[in-house]
Design brief:
This protein has two domains: about 90 residues, no CATH class; about 130 residues, 3-Layer(aba) Sandwich (Rossmann fold). Helix content is about 30%, strand content about 25%. It has nine helices and 16 strands. The protein has a four-stranded mixed sheet. A four-stranded parallel sheet has the order 6-5-9-11.
């Protein structure tokens, strides 16, 4: 395999699963995301020059100086297949048996979950967001195992919501105690869900980004930067990634 870190967009979009037969490094995953326009980091040098711009408001309510958008990263079919196989590698390395059903936590991991289910040869359970809440729309037989897959893990907010919904609506389903993700950006080793149990975070790569509770003081807010939800709209993402460019 050629050096991924030297590849431009055209070369990355020409990669196949067969070209990537080993585990990717964090540096390689970040490079791919950056080239595809799926990764943003705050420019502290620009802030020193007065361009304080915007920063990310996470689903957890925290503020951050970095953000991945999995929808953009996984939009090319070849990249989605490569990433899916990377997650399957981690599952097999951890000796995790194939579940009866697999679901991607919406919206970021919906297509990812389908792809992984196809690779493993298991049935897909479909989850979606309805009125802002995660809903499982597949009736799973009593006693069957279900593995939930995420795209990015920060604090496990979305994953916890998905677990609690499954437990409340289909309590006989056996949840596999893992949270496979593309990127663990929050440094979590496990997610404890009250009344359900503990789920080990199983990432393709670790890439820690800085987060702050705005109630305790966000240094970027202190600079005058405005927090914005990156995925609320396409315009929000464009505004975020261009907010510190010279005018």
């Amino acid at each position: 395999m050629n050096d991924i870190l030297r590849m431009g967009k055209e070369e990355l979009l020409a990669l196949t699963v067969e070209d990537v037969s080993r585990p990717l490094t964090a540096e390689e995953v970040v490079h791919v995301a950056t080239i595809l326009g799926a990764f943003w980091t705050y420019d502290y040098s620009a802030a020193d020059q007065g361009r304080v711009g915007m920063h990310a408001l996470l689903k957890s309510g925290l503020h951050s100086d970095g953000f991945f958008v999995s929808r953009i990263l996984l939009e090319p079919g070849n990249i989605r297949r490569i990433v899916s196989h990377q997650i399957v590698m981690r599952l097999r390395d951890a000796n995790i048996s194939a579940p009866d059903y697999l679901a991607g936590v919406p919206d970021g991991a919906t297509a990812l979950g389908l792809s992984i289910a196809e690779i493993l040869g298991v049935r897909e359970a479909y989850m979606e967001k309805t009125d802002g809440r995660i809903v499982l729309n597949t009736e799973i037989p009593s006693g069957a195992t279900l593995l939930l897959v995420e795209d990015i893990c920060t604090r496990g907010t979305g994953f916890t919501e998905a677990v609690l919904h499954v437990r409340s609506k289909q309590p006989s389903v056996k949840l596999v105690p893992y949270d496979p993700v593309i990127i663990n950006r929050g440094g979590c080793k496990e997610i404890s869900v009250e009344g359900v149990g503990t789920f080990a975070v199983l990432p393709v790569v670790e890439r820690k980004l800085r987060d702050w509770d705005p109630n305790d003081g966000c240094p970027l807010c202190g600079l005058g930067s405005v927090a914005i939800k990156p995925k609320a709209t396409g315009e929000n993402w464009r505004s975020l990634v261009t907010s510190q460019l010279p005018r």
